Amino acid sequence: VQLQASGGGLVRPGGSLRLSCAASGSIFSINAMGWYRQAPGKQRELVARIVWGGMTNYADAVKGRFTISRDNAKNTVTLQMNSLRPEDTAVYYCNYQGGGSNAWGQGTLVTVSS
Questions:
Q1: What are the tens digits of pLDDT across the range 23-36?
Q2: Any residues with CB less than 8 A from the CB of 17 and at least 6 apart, and which?
């Protein structure tokens, strides 16, 4: 399974960004896809995750600001990030779980700064 992520960049505090991730390759079934992030000097942490049946879960720090969604037909997951804060600055990684696989995307940098 290959994951192609896009949408990172530089944004001012209070701004918005949208991250997208497309899964391709040997996809037989998707259990869940999600986004994790890793800030400098910190461990990778869950941001948001969506089970393919539709259930979602979010980190407390992003609840009410970020929304994860999926497109079943395109095997994509999107993270809409609003009201961004400097502490959201990190490399964001797409994750895929399904068919016995646990795959990671290459990471996309999100920088929130004035």
A1: 988 777 888 999 99
A2: 7, 8, 9, 11, 81, 84, 110
The b-or-e profile of 64-103 (16+ CB within 10 A means b, else e) is eebbbebeeeebbbbbbbeebeeebbbbbbbbbbbeebeb
**What mean pLDDT comes out for the span 89-101?**
93
What does the alpha-carbon distance between residue 27 and residue 16 come to, in Å, rounded to a whole number?
31
Task: Report the C-alpha gap between 112 and 53 in whole angstroms.
Answer: 32
Q: Which residue has the higher pLDDT, 11 or 101?
A: 11
Geometric angle at alpha carbon 57, from 85 and 18, rounded to 5°: 45
